[in-house]
Amino acid sequence: MPNNYSYKSSGANSQGNHYCARDYGSSASNSNSYHYSNSNGSYYYSNPNGSSYYNNGSGYSSYTPPSGGSQGSSNSGRK
C-alpha cells in the first residue's frame, strides 16, 4: 500500500460524523481513498489498494479484498 498521500478533504458534521478523503496518486489501485466514522460507532474504509472494510459498530463487519472477490464478514454481536 502506498505511504505517500495528500489530504483532499476532511471534516465532521453536527451529528458527530467524521470523514477524511486522501489522494494516493496514480500508483495506487484506488487513488481517491477515504474513510468515515459515525457517532453510532459504525465506520467504513475505502483503501488505496482497492480493498474496503465496513463495521456497523454493533458486531457486524465486512471486508472486500482488493480484487473485488469474495467478501469476508463477521457478526459476533455486541454483548
From TrEMBL:
Highest taxon, organism lineage: Eukaryota
Q: Where is this region: Disordered?
A: 1-79
Q: What is this protein called?
A: Uncharacterized protein
Which segments show compositional bias classed as Low complexity? 24-79
Polar residues bias (residue ranges): 1-17
